[in-house]
Amino acid sequence: MSCGCSSGASLSVPSYSQQSIVSNVDCIYNNTNLLDFKNRLIWFKDSGLYIENNISIALLNKYIGTVISSINIQEKCTYKQILDEVNELVNFIITLQ
To answer: What percentage of the chain exceeds 70 in pLDDT?
Structure first.
């Protein structure tokens, strides 16, 4: 059986340097604010306001998934770059509530 893939196809996987990992000592995120992020993002999704504010459902689901993943791991800032983006969106959501 053949996969139907061309032999020249390649998959690009992002690489993360050691510098992109932030230790918990330097991390500003904790379970309390991550749970708040999750609740606000879910409210934003359930209310449908993401549509009015031109936020794609894919991006919103990515943010919710990242927050839930961060809650479930010890190193809260493993996904710091995305959490920083989530923080900006949550600050915007607060202005809507």
So the answer is: 74
Closest by Cα among 62, 67, 58, 57 to 87: 67
Which string of DSSP letters, residue by residue, matches 7-47? TT---------GGG---GGG----HHHHHHHHHHHHHHHHH
Rounded Cα distance between 51 and 14, Å, is 29
pLDDT band at 63 (very low <50, low <70, confident <90, very high): very high
Alpha carbon distance 14, 34 (integer Å): 25
34, 86 Cβ separation under 8 angstroms: no
CA distance 83 to 77: 8
